[in-house]
Amino acid sequence: MTDPISHDPATTPEVASEERRVPSSQPILLRAVTVGGIAAVVVTVVMSVIGWCVDGGTGLASGALGSVSAFVFLGVTAASILVSNFFVQSDFYVVIFFGLVLGSWILKFVLFIVAALLLKDQPWINPTMFFISVIVGVLASLLVDVFVVAKSRVPYVGDLSKDRAV
């Protein structure tokens, strides 16, 4: 009438609870990074070809550099979230999460200012093509994020375990 009790150590609750938990948003973020990488390659190729047609080698370099820099800067935030999710079991997860994400934003801000100052007067950069490439890269990244989140299924209930309940 009843199933025999299994004493297999791999199926006991103690062993099952010891494996590393990840937030329910982790697969969605990984999918956004994957699809974003594909979009980055497509946008870089397209903007490089358009740049080549507009301004030759200078346009090609500007198109490629602009689109790649947009995706690198946007990818830093995703990477900081993925890294912070390794600490989801910690009591300081929220502090670690916001510290890493906000720290990555400050890092991106500083790197953007340095890059803008270094690239400002370079003869091998077409500023208009570079600017348009950055804008297209940002818009493509936003479209990818909207698409991935709209197609995802995330539970309405949070990831809190019984021992961390509010």
TrEMBL record:
Q: Name the domain of life.
A: Bacteria
UniProt keywords, alphabetically: Membrane, Transmembrane, Transmembrane helix
- The residue ranges crossing the membrane are 28-52, 64-88, 95-118, 130-150
Q: Does the keyword Membrane apply?
A: yes
The question of whether Transmembrane helix is a record keyword is answered with yes
Region Disordered: start-end pairs: 1-20
Q: What is the lineage of its organism?
A: Bacteria, Bacillati, Actinomycetota, Actinomycetes, Micrococcales
State what protein this is by name: ATP synthase protein I
